[in-house]
Each structure stands twice: as C-alpha cells, then as structure tokens.
Amino acid sequence: MRYGLPSMTVNTSTSTPDGAQDRRRAREDRGLKPAGAAARADRLPPAPRERRPLLAAFAVLLIVGGAAAAGLLAVRSDTRVPVLVAARDIAVGQQITEDDVTTTPVASEGLLLIPADQKDLVLGQYADITVSAGQLLDTTMLIGTRTLQDGKVAVGASLAPGRMPASGLAAGDVVQLVQVSEGEGTVLVPDALVSSAASPDAATSGTSATTVTFIVDEADGARVAGVGAEGQLAAVLVTRGAPLDGED
C-alpha cells in the first residue's frame, strides 16, 4: 500500500525587495532630498576664474612696443652716412689738406658732423684745436683763417682752480697772462688768445687742473711756458668769445 505524499512546489526564483531603493523612494515621496544631494548642496560653489583684461592688454602693448623699438634700432643702424674724419694728427693752426682727411660711415645724425660731400669746403680751412687721427671732424674744430700767423706761437699750460675765471675759458677768449708770486701779479701778455681749453674729469684723471692753449707772440712764448711749468701762471679774462678769425 503506497501512501502518496502531497506535492509541494518550491519557488526557486524568489525576489527580495531592495531596501535602500525603497527608503529613497519614501524620502522622495515625503519631499526630502537624498543625503548625498544635501551634502553636495552644503558645499560652496567654486570661485569663478578671475580675469584681468587690463593686465593682458598691458602685456600685449609691451610686446608690440619692444618689437617696434627693436625694428627702429635696426633701421637706424643700417642708415649710415659718410662723414669726414682726420686721417692723421692735425696740429692747431695747421691748414687742412687733402691728405689730412678721409671718410667713414656713421649712424650718428649730429648736426655738427661734416658730411663727406662737403669735403671741398673743409680743404683750406685751419684747425682751431689739435685733432687726433681717427677723430670725427665737426664745424667747431675749424676756422677760416690761420690762428698761428707769422710771429705767433701756441703755448700750453695747466691752470689750477682759482687761476682763471670760475666759468672757465673757451676758444676765442682773450686773456691777460699773469705771473703770480708771493701775492703779487706781473702781466706777461696783455692780450693772449685762447685756442682751446679742456677740463678733465677729476674723478678719473686725479686732477682738477684745466689745460689751456694760448696764442702769444713768439717773443713771449718761452717765458709763458716757463712760468706755466712752475705753476705760477694765471689767466685774467679780458674779452669773452672773440672770434678767432679776427686775429691779426
């Protein structure tokens, strides 16, 4: 005798509800935001990226300006003009000849420099100062008549501060040359002509004396040179800026 067992059906595909999703739906039904969203809401928004348009524009102007300046310098450096230059040493009072001058290209646009195409105007002029070989010639170095005429000599002397006017001396000045000794002054030359005057940089040369070239009569030259070598020479200004081409 067989006893039949009641048949049982086992459901192998059971489904378990997702508890987390249910809780989220319930919170949303009640009008609550998810916890993650609340946390994100509490965070401050990132700061907007600061823009500096003026600074950027200034940088662009600097770049453009630098490029323009470099271009201008390049153009100017290529704009060279030939000017006259001393081919050899030229003594004061010496007449300028063809062999004394040559030309060289320079970028300078100085108004006093003499263009090479004006060479014919320079030939026959006289040197107002001593010109060294290679020195650029300008109009202040030349005069129309010879400074050292017959019977005249050029004498150089170093004048210490206090031995000439505080304003200095310049080419064309007429001075008295005085020998100063023991507080007394003796006039050596009443009307010496200043041919040139140069004051060196005391910081580099170590001296504050002014080197002056005087045009005097040949008979007075030796005595003036001796007094100047002893440091006893002084210059008294008589006429300021007398034209050198008026010398007799």
Radius of gyration: 48 Å
The helix content, as a percent range, equals 25-40%
Task: Characterize the main sheet.
Answer: 5 strands, antiparallel
Number of strands: 9
Averaged pLDDT: 77
Secondary-structure-based class equals alpha+beta
CA(first)-CA(last) distance: 173 Å
The secondary-structure element order is HHHEEHEEEEEHEHE
In spatial order, strands of the major sheet run: 5-8-7-6-9
Low-confidence parts: 9-17, 242-248
Molecular structure report:
Helix content is 26%, strand content 25%. It is an alpha+beta fold. The chain has a five-stranded antiparallel beta sheet, covered by helices on one side. Strand 6 (174-181) and strand 7 form a beta hairpin. The longest helix has 26 residues, at 53-78. The protein is elongated, with a radius of gyration of 48 Å. It starts with 18 loop residues before the first helix and ends in a 9-residue tail after the last strand. The model is unreliable at 9-17 and 242-248 (pLDDT under 50).
Chain-wise SSE layout:
Layout: H1 19-29, H2 35-42, H3 53-78, E1 81-86, E2 101-106, H4 119-122, E3 126-127, E4 142-143, E5 152-159, E6 174-181, E7 184-198, H5 202-205, E8 210-217, H6 218-229, E9 233-239
